């Protein structure tokens, strides 16, 4: 082989390394080009970042129409500011699709794997979602998304997500400072990378409070007799599975009006049980089966709630400031992030203080327990304390959420970077 052949020869190992370096250079170049585009767009739009581009500045993903109550305040705030945002939903009947926004583009992206396929190829600067399990289940981090933000839709503990539910987000927006401590403790125990965790308040609870405040006093009259709401979760540790006919019999004997609102999943996973109970206890004036998608009217008309580990307890106690009766249960934490933590969860310490415990041996005096809970000053004080801890910045969650997203946008970060460089 001549000298020219020797000069042109590259061994396979070196070639592979050079190819990897080349890909890295190209990838880095694309990243900085993308960031430069966002910076230019940010400046030209006066901070609104609504200039047309292949890169979507903000994407909100909703896995179900049920989360519209969480995302609507955010979309409304983006619209108010005139900032372009894309709302992607996996529900073809999501109420968002009927909204008449100018700056918020609402789009049905398909269900199941079709939705995840689009998400996995998303080209966006920031993605906001309530969905846990990013990069754990079907939803993978797209290489073309710079920043993923998880927003809590519940004011309860963060540790009852399935294992690693929030690990691969870049940031988490929480409802109260106690959730920051939970996230940071889990990161420390597992030696996870640190995420940006910020308290913005509760979008969902703020929206419910606004709705309650808008009702005229004459339209919010209580029932002519005490109304008890039975609102269980579902599964082996839930009230209807544990007690079934026994708890309903005990409630009927109180003489109060009873509303039974099963968890939606019960109608799928526990259909035989539900069919049996509904057949034995048919709906009437004083026994109502509630399957409405929206629970607001039912919460309004109820004087007290009986539940288990459902987070609807917080909706009722914090927004409506009404007492609960709490079914004691033992939760298997083995599949949840909570299994890494060796002390009681916030809600394990808090929920029992919000109302009276429900034990099977007490079913015979359930009316007495209900009456005492409704008038208890101790339970009222516990509701106030829980509200202070779990629902901070009341009425400000939408503004604080959008403030955070705009601050973290590529254009804004470029502005901050330039400012820092100017002071050095």
Characteristic key phrases:
424 residues, alpha/beta, Rossmann fold, 2 domains, seven-stranded parallel β-sheet, six-stranded parallel β-sheet, 17 helices, 43% helix, globular, disordered N terminus, disordered C terminus
What does this structure look like?
There is one protein chain. This protein has 424 residues and is α/β, with parallel strands linked by helices. The chain is built from 17 helices and 13 strands. A seven-stranded parallel β-sheet has the order 3-2-1-4-5-6-7, with helices on both faces. The longest helix has 33 residues, at 12-44. The radius of gyration is 26 Å and the shape is globular. 36% of the residues are buried.
Which secondary structure elements does this structure contain, and how are they paired or packed?
Layout: H1 3-8, H2 12-44, E1 56-62, H3 68-81, E2 85-89, E3 104-108, H4 112-120, E4 124-129, E5 145-151, E6 171-174, H5 177-190, E7 196-199, H6 203-213, E8 227-230, H7 239-242, H8 245-253, E9 257-260, H9 266-269, H10 271-280, E10 287-289, H11 296-301, E11 304-307, H12 312-319, E12 324-327, H13 346-350, E13 355-358, H14 366-374, H15 377-390, H16 397-408, H17 410-423
Parallel strand pairs: 1-2, 1-4, 2-3, 4-5, 5-6, 6-7, 8-9, 8-11, 9-10, 11-12, 12-13
Helix pairs in contact: 2-17, 3-6, 3-16
């Amino acid at each position: 082989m001549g000298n020219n052949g020797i000069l042109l020869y590259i061994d396979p190992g070196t070639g592979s390394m050079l190819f990897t370096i080349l890909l890295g250079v190209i990838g880095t170049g694309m990243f900085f080009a993308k960031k430069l585009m966002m910076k230019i767009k940010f400046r030209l739009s006066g901070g609104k970042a609504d200039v047309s581009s292949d890169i979507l500045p903000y994407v909100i993903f909703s896995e179900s129409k049920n989360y519209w109550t969480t995302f609507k305040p955010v979309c409304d705030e983006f619209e108010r500011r005139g900032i372009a945002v894309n709302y992607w939903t996996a529900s073809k009947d999501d109420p968002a699709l009927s909204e008449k926004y100018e700056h918020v583009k609402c789009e049905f992206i398909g269900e199941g794997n079709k939705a995840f396929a689009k998400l996995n190829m998303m080209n966006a600067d920031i993605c906001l979602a309530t969905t846990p399990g990013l990069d754990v289940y079907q939803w993978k981090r797209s290489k073309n998304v710079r920043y993923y933000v998880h927003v809590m839709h519940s004011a309860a503990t963060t540790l009852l997500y399935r294992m690693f539910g929030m690990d691969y987000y870049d940031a988490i927006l929480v409802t109260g400072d106690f959730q920051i401590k939970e996230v940071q403790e889990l990161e420390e125990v597992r030696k996870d990378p640190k995420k940006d965790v910020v308290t913005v308040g509760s979008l969902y609870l703020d929206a419910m409070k606004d709705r309650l405040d808008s009702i005229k006093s004459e339209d919010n009259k209580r029932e002519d007799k005490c109304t008890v709401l039975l609102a269980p979760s579902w599964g082996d540790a839930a009230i209807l599975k544990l007690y079934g006919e026994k708890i309903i019999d005990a409630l009927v004997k109180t003489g109060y009006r009873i509303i039974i609102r099963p968890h939606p999943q019960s109608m799928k996973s526990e259909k035989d049980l539900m069919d049996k109970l509904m057949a034995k206890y048919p709906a009437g004036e004083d026994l109502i089966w509630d399957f409405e998608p929206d629970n607001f009217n039912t919460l309004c008309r109820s004087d007290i709630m009986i539940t288990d580990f459902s987070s609807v307890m917080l909706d009722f106690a914090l927004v409506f400031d009404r007492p609960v009766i709490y079914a004691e249960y033992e939760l298997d934490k083995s599949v949840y992030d909570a299994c890494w933590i060796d002390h009681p969860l916030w809600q394990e310490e808090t929920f029992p203080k919000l109302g009276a415990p429900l034990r099977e041996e007490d079913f015979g005096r359930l009316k007495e327990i209900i009456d005492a809970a409704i008038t208890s000053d101790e339970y009222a004080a516990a509701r106030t304390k829980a509200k202070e801890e779990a629902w901070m910045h009341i009425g400000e969650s939408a503004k604080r959420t959008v403030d955070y997203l705009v601050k973290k946008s590529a254009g804004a970060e470029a502005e901050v970077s330039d400012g820092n460089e100017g002071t050095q």
